[in-house]
Amino acid sequence: MLDAILAAVPFGIILAFTIGPVFFVLLETSATKGFKSALIFDLGVIFADILFILVAFFSTSNLIEKLEDDPNFLIFGGVLLAVYGFISFVKTSKSFREIVREYHRVEIQKNYGKLFLKGFLLNFINIGVLLGWLGFIIIGNSLTEGREALYVFLGTILAVYFIVDLIKIVVAKTLRNKLTPRLIFKTKKIVALVILGFGILLLLQGFFPKEKELIKDKLEQINQ
Question: Using one digit for the tens of pLDDT, what is the confidence trace for 4-51?
Fold first, then answer.
């Protein structure tokens, strides 16, 4: 279980710094309306993520059972993540003006119920989030052994994501001043490349399953 937790931590951090409308609204809400308002908004975002996890998990559970030891499953996941990362990189490369507009245009709701709903909807309408969680499930399945370990992996990603969000809420004013549109532009491209890299890694594991097992055995020997 500890291995699943440690493996999930980097993905939770990456998820927390995936910059988009949710990211800006979270910072702006904290900076202008306080910790509680930002927390309510973030809970709406997390709730949407939980729904996406359930949809992604149960829609692929039969597939996971059938292809658990099939390298084609890793290839499928690798293609999914690589394409997602590539498209994100290309879109980001063409979206600097849009980033500037997002940076300066953030509307804040005062009502807690509306804040929760806004967080939920901003996340829920983004189909890329569903694809991202599908990719995380595939990665988790390749990094962990057993269904319980996969649950721990996904739960840890969510927990780390939420903890990092809490830190962002606390330091919102400073963080927002530091995050210029140019830095945001570069960060989004880096995140897209990281996702692309994970996709390529899965592809390599799928194309070379024997080498994957050899590396895994050596790592287990080192840990013993």
Answer: 888 888 888 887 877 566 777 787 778 767 788 889 999 999 999 998
The closest alpha carbon to 195, from 15, 68, 5, 7, belongs to 15
pTM: 0.62
DSSP letter (8 states) at residue 89: H
Dihedral angle sign, alpha carbons of residues 169, 172, 178, 184: positive
Share above pLDDT 70 across residues of the chain, in percent, rounded to a whole number: 70
How far apart (Å, rounded) are the C-alpha atoms in residues 181 and 30?
A: 19
- Note whether 72 and 206 are within 8 A (CB): yes
What are the extents of the domains in the chain?
2-223
Kindly give, in sequence order, each residue whose CB lies less than 8 Å from that of residue 117, ignoring residues fewer than 6 positions away. 44
Taking alpha carbons only, the member of 73, 86, 80, 81 closest to residue 212 is 73
Q: Is 109 helix (H, G, I), strand (E, B) or coil?
A: coil
Positive or negative: CA dihedral 205, 206, 210, 213: positive
Of 74, 111, 99, 95, the C-alpha closest to 199 is 74
Give the contacts of 6 (CB within 8 A, at least 6 positions apart): none
The CA distance from 145 to 149, in Å, is 6
Best CA proximity match to 19, nearest among 80, 109, 91: 91
- CA nearest to 118, candidates 47, 35, 14, 34: 47
Tell me if 4 sits within 8 A of 145, measured CB to CB: no
